[in-house]
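Dear support,

I submitted the protein below through the web form. The confirmation email said the job was done, but the results page showed an empty box. After a refresh the structure appeared. I'm attaching both so you can tell me whether what I see now is the final result or a partial one.
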Amino acid sequence: MVAFLQYGTRFLRPIQEIGERYGVLQSSVVSAERVFALLDTPAPGPREGKRVDSSGAARIQFEHVWFAYKPGQWVLRDVSFEIGPGEMLAVVGHTGAGKTTLTNLLLRFYEPQRGVIRLGGVDIRALSLPELRRQFGVVLQDAYMREGSVLDNIRFGGDGGGNGQALRSAGRVGLAALAEHLPEGLETRVQERGDNLSSGQKQIIAFARALAQDPRYLILDEATSSIDPETESRIQSSLDLLFRDRTSLVIAHRLSTVLNADRILVMHKGEPAESGNHKELIARKGLYWRLYQVQFGLVSEECE
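What the results page shows now:
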């Protein structure tokens, strides 16, 4: 009986493994179809388009922009605002207010159903994607790290400026000092997605990467939300350096990171609700004032 049970187990095990492999195969086929469908999707816009004056940062304009990921479910409703040359605009609001969607449209990952977005007075749909995107430096909440050295990750996505440019960028954001705690300094090998680095180290590398590209425009999307306040204060000088003489769009949930912005745009349910600097919005006692009060645990007398 014992021998029969053991033989039965050995007989059924290959059948179970075949069933498991078949399930994995089906999942792989579906995933491959999605990947190839994405690769076969034609890039939007012209290959050769108009060029924007590269002598300095230009004005960014959103004019009556409407956008929906699904038909009829508007994420943005008649959004109009502009960012002046060299100005830092902070966008705040509740989750789902449409903040990140603004950057997706600006970089043309999606096209608005209505309205127009202009860069230096030129409709961005008239620009080729390489011409448009090479002008932007982007730092996201989850900084992407690939396998290679720290210097490789700083150069990643750039125009091949070499180690010299990457080293200068690392020194300017304070990464060289931080790298002293790494086993091999800036030549330390980075694991896939930066698993051997802390959140603060990955964010500083992302700032150095953006600075190495010397972009005319800067987009920060929750760039400091996943790091602790001590690390945030350490990299504040890096942020000041990035913002200098650049037109910047900063998206943040933590209002402490946008108090010094030239102008703050408050989004609510896909529409601009308020606009002004920190003092003006606090004095207005509207939506921004309530967000500020909740985050800092202040009573109304303190907010005044």
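Response: this is the final, complete result; the empty box was a page-load delay. The first helix runs from residue 2 to 40.
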